[in-house]
């Protein structure tokens, strides 16, 4: 699914493949920590201008996904938004009240995250991508 979504997104500059179950999608570029290979993941995001917000949901019930670890190991990277707009960003994990406020907005945007959070013991990271 991710590979097709990425292809469709790039082919149409986000006019197609720019949403997943009604939620907006961006393409996140990152580098594999072990392989050093460039990777791209389509991910649901919240526009919290000038920042973007991601949730590190599924990497297994009790494990953060590989893209999260790759992203957090980088000081900056690029994302591609619908319309072919590329933006250089710096990741950080939201904590405390900021995380709680963003989490509430994210689950309104994409309710399955709330269901997923009930099935895991871990606190699912909320990542803020600030302009770099």
TrEMBL record:
It catalyses: oxidized coenzyme F420-(gamma-L-Glu)(n) + a quinol + H(+) = reduced coenzyme F420-(gamma-L-Glu)(n) + a quinone. The keyword Plastid does not apply. It holds the Pfam family F420H2_quin_red. GO terms for molecular function: coenzyme F420 binding; coenzyme F420H2:quinone oxidoreductase activity. Its EC number is 1.-.-.-. The keyword Oxidoreductase applies. GO terms for cellular component: plasma membrane. Keywords: Oxidoreductase. It comes from the Bacteria. PANTHER family: DEAZAFLAVIN-DEPENDENT NITROREDUCTASE (PTHR39428:SF3), F420H(2)-DEPENDENT QUINONE REDUCTASE RV1261C (PTHR39428). Belongs to the F420H(2)-dependent quinone reductase family. This is Deazaflavin-dependent nitroreductase. It comes from Actinoalloteichus hoggarensis.
